[in-house]
TrEMBL record:
Protein keywords: Cytoplasm, DNA-binding, Transcription, Transcription regulation
Record protein name field: Probable transcriptional regulatory protein PNH38_08215
Organism from which the protein derives: Anoxybacteroides rupiense
Family label: Belongs to the TACO1 family. YeeN subfamily.
GO molecular function: DNA binding
Parts forming coiled coils: none
Key word Metal-binding present: no
Domain TACO1/YebC-like N-terminal: 3-73
InterPro entries: Integrase-like_N, TACO1_YebC-like_2nd/3rd_dom, TACO1_YebC_N, Transcrip_reg_TACO1-like, Transcrip_reg_TACO1-like_dom3, Transcrip_reg_TACO1_YeeN, YebC-like
Localization per record: Cytoplasm
Positions of the TACO1/YebC-like second and third domain: 79-235
Coarse class of the protein's main subcellular location: cytoplasm
Pfam families per UniProt: TACO1_YebC_N, Transcrip_reg
């Protein structure tokens, strides 16, 4: 299919370099998910999904508990979920998901992060049609054939399965996320290397060294924003 997960080593390196920022973003995501439904992951699928993803980033239990307790309390803090779309150099495309309590501030900051780094914001739908919402789960200790057999027995039709850094990566429809987790948990797998609902580009673009450096600077500027939770793009970072 030509799809590929953002390199596992790159993901772990990014996590290690930006621990406090990532933990803060997860705290907000957990609070919002818990506030929107029951503060119990067994009855709140959105919360359960955020917590599963948080595990892959080793978010401390104290941060998780604090966010859930805050949601249980009398806090009236509320956030809007926003999606911005934009362009970088040479056909590169970017999707930015944010949680904010000040829409004007966030829009201004995202626009500035694009504009100051050679990019520009587009209108809603200008980029997202080139991406597919996808469930991605990574497991260790199983071969590709073993994973395929487990999925076939559960009647789960994966889009793609590949192996990267001793991790088997499975791509599937978003509504298969929980079913896949349950299949692997029944097979004795309780920890996932990756557990994401993400946006994967239909095609990747390769940038020149100069353009890639500029693009990475733009992505860093976007990810540094407090309100920005996730950034997706279609650039091959392995080059």
């Amino acid at each position: 299919m030509g799809r590929k997960w953002n390199n596992i080593k790159e993901k772990k390196a990014s996590k290690d370099a930006n621990t406090s920022r990532i933990y803060a973003k997860f705290g907000r995501q957990i609070y919002v998910a818990a506030k929107q439904g029951e503060p119990d992951p067994e009855s709140n699928r959105a919360l359960k999904m955020v917590l599963e993803r948080a595990k892959t980033y080793s978010v401390p239990k104290a941060i998780i508990d604090r966010a859930i307790e805050k949601a249980k309390g009398s806090s009236d803090e509320s956030y809007d979920e926003l999606r911005y779309e934009g362009f970088g150099p040479n056909g590169s495309m970017v999707i930015v998901d944010a949680l904010t309590n000040n829409v004007n501030r966030t829009a201004s900051e995202v626009r500035a992060a694009f504009g100051k780094n050679g990019g520009n914001m587009g209108v809603s739908g200008s980029v997202s049609y080139m991406f597919d919402a996808t469930a991605v789960i990574g497991v260790e200790g199983k071969t590709v054939d073993e994973v395929l057999e487990l999925l076939m027995e559960a009647d789960i039709d994966a889009r793609d399965i590949l192996e990267e850094d001793e991790t088997v990566i499975i791509y599937a429809e978003p509504d298969q996320f929980h079913a896949m987790q349950e299949v692997f948990q029944r097979a004795g797998i309780t920890e996932f290397t990756v557990a994401e609902l993400t946006m994967l580009p239909q095609n990747y673009v390769t940038l020149s060294d100069e353009a890639l450096a500029q693009f990475k600077k733009m992505i860093d500027a976007l990810e540094d924003l407090e309100d920005v939770q996730r950034v997706y793009h279609n650039v091959d970072m392995d080059e």
